[in-house]
Amino acid sequence: MTISKLLITGATALKEAGIDNAAKEVELFLSHILQVKRLDLYLNSNNQVTGNNISLFNSFIARRIKREPVAYITGFQDFMELSFKVNRNVLIPRPETELLAEHTLALIDKKVPGYEILDLATGSGILAITLKKKFPFVRMTASDISAGALAVAKENAKKHGVFAEITFLESNMFKGLKKGKKFHLIVSNPPYVPKEDMKILMEDVRLFEPKTALDGGKEGLRFYKEVIKKAPLYLHSSGYLALEIGFGQAEKIRNLFNESGKFDILKLVRDYAAIERVLIARVKNG
Asked: Is the residue at 71 inside a domain?
């Protein structure tokens, strides 16, 4: 069967199953299987595809019809111009988290010796690895409660040549850290979906992505309450806290910070849909 025929039949099957962006997803599947760029599919549209690759392509289509996310099917997702392995142990990186990475990068001070960062709830390791790649001098710790997630993060760190330079820690929030440990910056994309909203998530998310990385408790604020309470114990004087936040949560989280009296909120950054998505705060001196 030719590349052209596979593109047509695959897109038709996905469209009939109600999948949005069917043509684009089929291109991603076939370019991944054939290890070519998407443009090459059209430049070589009359080329024949072998039996094994046809079988693999058909299996990809069948999995997608069942609403399995594209990134889990291919096993990879791009983030900040890097490619990361993903599986069902970790959340799939979103564009919103690139916004968190960009604003976190802007906080790092090259003049501070021994600059240390904690990536709390690291998941696939996208933040820890991206920050380490951009600023090799940084001392990075990446923690997560999930051993499965940490295994993926370690694979990604090896892939990008920074495994030996990142400390990986299996920990429930701050519990695994040594007493008295201090960081200049703590960054996190935490679980923030309200428990009731877990029931109405898209099937792609609800049926496949790890619930522990999504469920933020009754109002989606469980993580933020703990991090606001305990982060000051692990931050140097005037250290930064950079967080991704969920839709409609900005005001409640701002109130949590104000009630604590331990931080100054420096900025709330809106994403491309005008949703307040990233919060940057600095711990108060003393």
From this structure: no
Q: Exposed e or buried b for every residue in 199-208, given b needs 16+ CB within 10 A?
A: eeeeebbbeb
Domain housing 50: 3-66
Answer yes or no: is 143 within a domain. yes
The pLDDT tens digits of the residues spanning 205-251 come to 999 999 999 989 989 999 999 999 999 999 999 999 999 999 999 99
Q: Do 112 and 52 sit in the same domain of this protein? A: no
Q: Distances in Å between the alpha carbon of 170 and those of 53, 119, 123, 194, 217?
A: 38, 12, 11, 24, 21
Reduced 3-state DSSP string for 59-83: HHHHHHHCCCCHHHHHCEEEECCEE
Are 167 and 141 in contact by the 8 Å Cβ rule? The answer is yes
CA dihedral 132, 133, 134, 136 (to 10 degrees): 60
Q: Are 138 and 131 in contact (CB under 8 A)?
A: yes
The answer to the question of residue 229 being in a domain is yes
Q: Which residue has the tokens 């990233």?
A: 278
pTM of the model: 0.91
Dig out the tokens for 128 from the structure.
């820890």
